[in-house]
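Give me the 3D structure for Phosphonate C-P lyase system protein PhnG.
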Amino acid sequence: MSRPEYSPETLRRREAMSLLARCSVARLAQLLPDLPPHEILRMPEIGTVMIKGRAGGTGSPFNLGETTVTRASLRLPSGEVGHGYVQGRDKAHALRAAAIDALGQRDPAGIESRVLSPLRHEQDARKAAIAAEATATRVEFFTLARGEDQ
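Predicted structure for Phosphonate C-P lyase system protein PhnG (150 residues):
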């Protein structure tokens, strides 16, 4: 099965939504203290989604379980529509993510430099710290061969 081709804009928004969903709402509030004027299209609402897994990452998909997700949609006065989906029950987080998504359509370079780039650097630093911790606890195993077994 071939994967669909996505436009660069779709890929950029997908990556941005992923960053916004993984950071804390407190951090988003620091990076964008005030929400822009907006019209709410979908009030933040809480629901569940099914998580699918694959055995070994490549096997047949199976239903792993459900997780709670909050989503919201809004429109800026200039017409851009933003969507926010976050894991958990934080309505403010979903609304702020939707606002940043909409602002990113109007001013991609500004949102990239003010919000997304700092989040990306923080996420990379967290990943590097986790990798360093895992490396520090790695154990190397080796086998000693006895002389008479040869």
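The first helix runs from residue 8 to 22. Let me know if you want a second pass.
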